[in-house]
Amino acid sequence: MIILNLNYILNIVITLFLIGVLGLVLNRKNILITLMSIELMLLAINLNFVVFSIYLDDITGYIFVLFILTIAAAESAIGLAILTIYYRLKNTIRIDKIKNIKS
To answer: Domain limits at 57?
Structure first.
């Protein structure tokens, strides 16, 4: 079995997290890309918890991952449900159009 170096895995985690941050910063139009960027950042954090939990031989990281995945799943389900209803009403999901809602 090939044992990967801790620095190699942490570089992957940092890269995934930065891709998520860039998705949030550079995207101003599409709310689906915003949701995917948030999910990518949460998954990078989960990978970080798992790696350090294995490295330190502790179960606390796995417990945090379980809670974070549960919250991320609920956030995605509620966000997509809201977007689906909004799309049915207005036929668009552009962020600039959603920001202009008064009521």
So the answer is: 29-99
Return mean pLDDT, the chain: 86
* Domain-located, residue 7: no
Structure tokens that stand for 42 in this block? 């949460």
CA 74, distance to chain mean position in Å, is 12
Residue 23 inside a domain? The answer is no
Helix pair angle (6-26, 31-56), 10° resolution: 160
Does the pLDDT at position 1 exceed 70?
no
User: What domain count does the chain have?
Assistant: 1
* Other Cβ atoms within 10 Å of 67 Cβ, number: 9
* Token pair listed for 62: 């796995």
Structural domain includes residue 1: no
Please state whether the predicted TM-score (pTM) of the whole model is above 0.85: no
Query: Burial of 86 by CB count in 10 Å (0-12 exposed, 13-18 middle, 19+ buried)?
Result: middle
49-93 confidence digits (pLDDT tens): 999 998 888 999 999 999 999 998 998 899 889 888 888 887 877
Q: Does residue 55 belong to any structural domain of this protein? A: yes
